[in-house]
Amino acid sequence: MGETIDVPKAMTIAGSDSGGGAGIQADLKTFSALGVYGASCITAITAQNTVGVFGIHEVPTEIISQQIDAVLSDLEIKCIKTGMLSSSNIIECVVETLLNHQVTWLVVDPVMVAKSGDSLLRADALVSLKSKLIPIASVVTPNIPEAETLTGLTIFNETDVKECAKRIVELGARAVVIKGGHLDGPATDVLYDGYSFDEFTSPRIPSTNTHGTGCTFASAITAGVAKNLTLLEAVAQAKEFVTEAIRSSYDIGSGHGPLNHFYKYWA
Does the annotation count 215 as an active-site position? Predict the structure, then answer.
């Protein structure tokens, strides 16, 4: 028998990226790099690399619910993150299963489009995302285009970001972080918890190695919560982690390369 150690544990419910840059692969790398044991539920298998997404095979909903049941019935998971949930049936399956387990901490990354521009969310799934999943979220982590899709607003500046944040919380989420990478100037992320705003700014790093940034950011927040950080502390940790992982990235493939999740450990 091994030594009993109280290791913080988190879970990701997302799609698999065969290229290893985003999805389940990025999530588990992030958990590991931040000292958290990671469990997973795969919702879809994608044929994907740094250039694009060439095929998507959705996992049957009964297998999705069985994966979640198996993990949550055995492991003491502190925080769960959702990523690619490509259809309304999958979203409703995940929500029902999580409610059955009375999950208390859920980070929702509303994945809609891959870095290559390929769609990862069916048109019918948007309604379920807004009406079923977001209302049970502890925090939602959209980028600018995702926030615009969720609210119907167009974002030009910080005032628009804050209005979008308010509307997403009105959908039922306890908090939201809108990532500012798609706006000009320094990369500023805005956290709104229903009461106040906090901003997290980093210099914009000139790099095409940004495949999986959204997955990594949401997973880093999840890892922080699993380690008993406050939401504010977890978001600050995630911002720093993503920034340094982009800064220390190296070229893989001929498209948008991945982050270097293990920059602290690899030369």
Answer: yes
